[in-house]
Design brief:
This protein has a three-stranded parallel sheet, with no helix packed on it. Strands 6-10-8 form a three-stranded antiparallel sheet, with no helix packed on it. A two-stranded antiparallel ribbon has the order 1-2. A hairpin with a 2-residue loop joins strand 1 and strand 2. It is mainly alpha-helical and 418 residues long. It folds into three domains: 119 residues, no CATH class; 132 residues, no CATH class; 72 residues, no CATH class. About 7% of the residues have low confidence. It is globular.
Length: 418
């Protein structure tokens, strides 16, 4: 049996080993959920055959992609989904596969979004969905946070916070709480990922005379400080998209500056850093120019996914501030009361999805149940009643309104004001 197992492409190990040593990607700290390398074109095509067949047969008109930040390259994945859907549409239109590759290379198709796709992504405070993602929006965590904020009175929010701070005996330091929560998750569940990334970073640093004297413990100490200080859940570094890489490099810069500030604050306050942390300080200062080399060798996305694994459990799941309980359900970093005037016509291009359980007549003067700004006009972007999808026919938008049958799902797009 031992000889047979040794001939496999994997090595069996006790599940506790993964907390100290691991050499594959997994879903957070769940060993059984190993990542499939869909960034590989062949793996993507093989694992998505059923999905594309259902799309070709007209049984599927849209996709919800859960946890796309767990992918190695989310924009590449979304692009391949859209290209696959477009390829099938063109094959039906042209009657064959001949010449489709040439058509797909044309500029107007490079950023097209023929397949309706929404992503389950939590947008951090001040973060916007990347424009280069070929999707139609998120599933709505950010919108739900805003709608929830409408129900919280600002004056009562302050009063509840004061009562809570009196009870715990100190003021709430949100940034510190998040930092502590991330550190707790990293120490308890992600030590193996830190060690693995540190080993890879050590291997790269050995090739440079400027960085080869940084020891592995010092590199790991620097990584720990940097990932605890990232302002967003993850970054998206792609050599084919310099603009996106430049934006995400700014996030890396913020993380390094915060890590340095914490290091210096600890020195000034009298906290005694470890020898590894002391030697990590110069590495922190030189990390930004070094990241270009890491990125070219494909390591920065590994760092991005590790940041994500700490950020989501560290913020949304283990955040300890209970002064406003309902604000801690999805993303406490977005917790805030919201004035109704926040939903203004400027820049509010969110999509509204309704799943109707009864016949409904919608007049142009009326507002959909969750309409953002008062007076906004909506266009009917998609409906399950479209005859192409086996429905009874999508009613056209008219000034007098439209009628939708029961159990109909629709997507409304806010019309841009002239």
């Amino acid at each position: 049996m031992h000889a047979l197992l040794n001939r496999q492409l994997y090595r069996l190990a006790h599940w506790r080993v993964a907390s100290d040593e691991i050499n594959y990607r997994r879903f957070f700290n769940i060993n059984e959920l190993a990542a499939v390398r869909v960034e590989d074109e062949m793996v993507f095509q093989f694992s998505h055959r059923l999905i594309f067949r259902l799309i070709a047969e007209g049984r599927v008109q849209g996709l919800r992609i859960d946890h796309p930040d767990g992918l190695y390259d989310p924009p590449l994945y979304f692009g391949r989904l859209q290209d696959g859907a477009l390829r099938q549409a063109l094959a039906r239109e042209m009657g064959s596969d001949q010449g489709i590759d040439e058509v797909l290379r044309e500029r107007e198709f490079a950023r097209s979004r023929p397949l309706f796709i929404v992503a389950e992504k939590v947008l951090d405070r001040g973060e916007r969905l990347p424009d280069h993602w070929r999707i139609h929006g998120t599933v709505g965590y950010d919108a739900l946070n805003d709608l929830n904020g409408v129900l919280v009175d600002r004056s009562n929010e302050r009063a509840m916070t004061r009562v809570y701070e009196d009870f715990i005996g100190h003021k709430i330091d949100f940034e510190r709480l998040i930092h502590v929560a991330k550190r707790r998750v990293e120490r308890a569940s992600m030590a193996s990922e830190i060690e693995s990334l540190g080993a890879r970073l050590d291997h790269i640093s050995e090739k440079s005379p400027h960085f080869r004297d940084f020891t592995r413990p010092s590199l790991i100490a620097a990584l720990r400080e940097i990932i605890h200080c990232f302002p967003v859940y993850r970054t998206y570094i792609a050599p084919r998209d310099p603009e996106a890489s430049e934006k995400d490099a700014r996030y890396s810069g913020i993380a390094v500056e915060r890590a340095l500030a914490r290091f210096l604050d600890g020195m000034i306050s009298g906290a005694s850093p470890s020898p590894a942390a002391r030697s990590a300080n110069p590495f922190l200062e030189m990390f930004l120019p070094f990241q270009d080399r890491i990125s070219r060798l494909g390591k920065l996305n590994s760092l991005a996914m590790l940041v994500l694994k700490l950020g989501l459990p560290g913020v949304a799941d283990t955040y300890q501030g209970n002064e406003l309980w309902d604000y801690s359900l999805v993303d406490p970093d977005n917790r805030r009361p919201v004035d109704l005037r926040y939903f203004g016509p400027q820049g509010d291009d969110r999509l509204l999805l309704l799943n109707l359980g009864a016949d409904i007549s919608e007049a142009s003067s009326a507002e959909p149940l969750l309409a953002s700004p008062k007076g906004r006009r909506w266009s009917l972007l998609w409906s399950s009643e479209d005859v192409r999808y086996g429905g009874q026919g999508t009613p056209p938008w008219r000034e007098s309104g439209f009628f939708l049958g029961g159990a109909c799902a629709i997507a409304l797009k806010a019309l841009v004001h002239p």
